[in-house]
Amino acid sequence: MMQRCIPVLFFLMSSLCVMADTNRTVLIEGCAEAVQIYANQQEYKTGAAMMTSLSEALRAGYCKGVLDEYGRSHYCGGDWLKRAQLIAHHKDAERLPPSTEDLLSEACRL
Question: Any signal peptide, and if so, which residues (predicted)?
């Protein structure tokens, strides 16, 4: 019985690794969108909402949601926008942090 479960577990674990990479890329792109939208809070209140597409808003919301949830569960304080800016700087970087967890942990240290 146990021998049949091992290949299934290996398959599930390898698919989680692929998903983590995708989430990291999506998080970086979403935070780049959030930084553009929320470049400064005053600008957002006057016109950014009307000039933002639905897909940009969804990506930015994904970033904000991930940062809020990570901050809540890891006692990470501070401004979410500053953390988003740090993550967005990885968009053009040649080397990314090894995992989404490392990326979020780095941003949490701000």
Answer: 1-20
Q: How confident is the model at residue 11 (pLDDT cuts 50, 70, 90)?
A: very low
| 3-class state of residue 44 by DSSP | helix
Which DSSP string corresponds to 57-72?
HHHHHHHHHHHHHHHH
* Counted domains in the chain: 1
Contact 37, 44 (CB under 8 A): yes
What's the pLDDT tens digit per position in 30-76?
Answer: 999 999 888 765 565 556 667 788 898 899 999 999 999 999 999 88
Q: What is the residue type of 34? A: A
Q: Which domain holds residue 16?
A: 2-108
